[in-house]
Design brief:
Structural class: alpha/beta
CATH architecture: 3-Layer(aba) Sandwich
CATH class: Alpha Beta
Radius of gyration: 16 Å
Number of helices: 3
Shape: globular
Helix content: 10-25%
Bound molecules: zinc ion
Order of helices and strands: EHEEEEEHEHEEEE
């Protein structure tokens, strides 16, 4: 059992890491699968900003992943799953599966998602923190994701997971540029 977690803001190359990991498996006998939450309405499959794509199954719950015939399981946009879903990951790890997960670590307020907190409590084998270029100061130090409504940062009054359906825009920003309530 091995648990790898890739965390970071928008545009930090999390999907690229997932794709780099899974793409070669296509040519091996390894049984693997990639999942995305149904709540992710933006993407069909996993797409990196460099144009690489990977097929992913959209699911509402991770229930049952421990019982399937895959030895390696990838999960994209983990923060969109409910914290209660972590128990299914725990079961899959107990069955000896390797799991590699990516997602945002912090919400639009700069607070860690409960789901990610619970995930880290499992004691991962590796946690990779990615950085992006800050949308404001253009330094390669963005750790947060700022959500904008017509150019103005949203700092309160939203649920932790804001649907990325085109209503708002998402940009990586550094700790210093991050606008708080
Ligand atoms: Zn900045």
């Amino acid at each position: 059992m091995k648990l790898t977690i890739i965390l970071g803001p928008m545009k930090s190359g999390k999907s690229f890491d997932l794709i780099s990991f899974f793409s070669p498996l296509k040519y091996t006998a390894t049984k693997y699968v990639l999942y995305q939450p149904k709540r992710n309405v933006r993407d069909e499959g996993i797409e990196s900003r460099s144009g690489l794509t990977l097929e992913a199954k959209k699911i509402e719950t991770l229930e049952g992943i421990a019982d399937q015939d895959f030895s390696i399981i990838g999960i994209d946009e983990m923060h969109m799953f409910e914290p209660s879903e972590i128990s299914h990951i725990e079961k899959a790890l107990a069955k000896g599966k390797e799991i590699i997960i990516s997602g945002l670590d912090m919400d639009y307020k700069g607070e860690m998602f409960d789901t990610i907190k619970r995930l880290l409590e499992l004691g991962p084998t590796e946690v990779r923190y990615k950085r992006a270029v800050c949308n404001e100061c253009k330094q390669f130090s963005a750790t947060h994701t700022q959500v904008y409504d017509k150019g103005a940062p949203i700092t309160h009054g939203m649920p932790p997971v804001i649907p990325d359906d085109g209503t708002f825009s998402y940009e990586p920003v550094c700790r210093l540029c991050f606008a708080r309530e």
